[in-house]
User: Which sequence fits this backbone?
């Protein structure tokens, strides 16, 4: 069994390497597997590392305002081959687990509460009339901090879709993409995929079924690798609709890591001839590098 796994992993790696030398065409199924919330927790570090090095993860968005950002940045420095983006964050959705902006909060007072914490949802943020210029200042500060730590920023995206939900937010994301010369995840014709709400114990089977039915095109599967740890076990969403009813955040995110590193995922990617790609490759294609 161990020999079979090693052999399959070898051929999977070979298929990835060979796919990068061919020009894309309309019959290709291209897949970006994007792991979000890198640096949000200590457990995210272990899960992202495992998903990159032992799995099929294409890229990962780092959260510069989260408490484990510095450790995540150190990991990026040791792994320059990883495709890393900035997971731009202007809301923090967890009960009792709050984040502050990168900038001094009195400089961006329209996007924080009276204690300087980010609001818990896009709706709550919008209810307080965020100033687009303060949002832009904060987002630029988040990207600049990642660059300052030596991270090769290959794309940007926005946590919880919060930036795109404020007036002028989509235009702001497009402007940031142009100014920093990086793709904006979700703005390139990608068809979005997710298995976050799929029940425990069924995520691998659901993923295989999902990938088995893909038509030619570019897809982005947004996932949240994690581990089943006390840190993740206590995470509870502030929105009652988003609270899991069949297990904890830890168990769900640990199963996502299991999917991303599974033989089943590698097998269906090989069987369908799916071409894994990422935003660094997309940027290089667009710029002719």
Assistant:
């Amino acid at each position: 069994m161990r020999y079979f796994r090693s052999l399959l992993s070898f051929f999977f790696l070979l298929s990835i390497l060979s796919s990068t030398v061919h020009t894309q065409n309309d019959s290709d199924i291209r897949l970006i597997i994007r792991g979000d919330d890198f640096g949000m927790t200590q457990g995210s570090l272990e899960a992202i590392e495992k998903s990159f090095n032992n799995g099929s993860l294409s890229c990962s968005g780092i959260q510069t305002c989260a408490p484990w950002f510095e450790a995540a940045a150190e990991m990026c420095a040791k792994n320059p081959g990883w495709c890393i983006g900035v997971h731009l964050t202007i809301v923090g959705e967890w009960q009792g687990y709050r984040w502050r902006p990168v900038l001094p909060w009195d400089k961006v007072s329209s996007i924080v509460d009276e204690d300087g914490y980010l609001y818990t949802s896009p709706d709550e943020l919008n209810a307080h009339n965020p100033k687009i210029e303060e949002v832009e200042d904060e987002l630029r500060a988040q990207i600049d901090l990642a660059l300052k730590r030596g991270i090769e920023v290959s794309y940007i995206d926005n946590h919880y879709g919060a930036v795109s939900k404020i007036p002028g937010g989509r235009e702001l994301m497009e402007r940031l993409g142009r100014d920093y010369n990086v793709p904006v995840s979700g703005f390139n014709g990608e068809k979005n995929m997710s298995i976050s709400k799929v029940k425990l114990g069924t995520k691998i089977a659901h993923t295989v079924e999902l990938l088995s039915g893909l038509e030619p095109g570019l897809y982005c599967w947004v996932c949240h690798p994690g581990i089943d740890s006390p840190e993740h076990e206590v995470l509870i969403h502030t929105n009652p609709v988003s609270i899991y009813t069949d297990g904890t955040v830890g168990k769900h995110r640990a199963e996502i890591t299991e999917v991303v590193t599974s033989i089943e995922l590698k097998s269906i990617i090989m069987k369908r001839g799916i071409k894994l790609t990422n935003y660094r490759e997309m940027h290089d294609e667009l710029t002719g590098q």
User: Anything to note?
Assistant: The radius of gyration is 19 Å. The chain has a mean pLDDT of 92. The chain has eleven helices and seven strands. The longest strand covers residues 29-38.
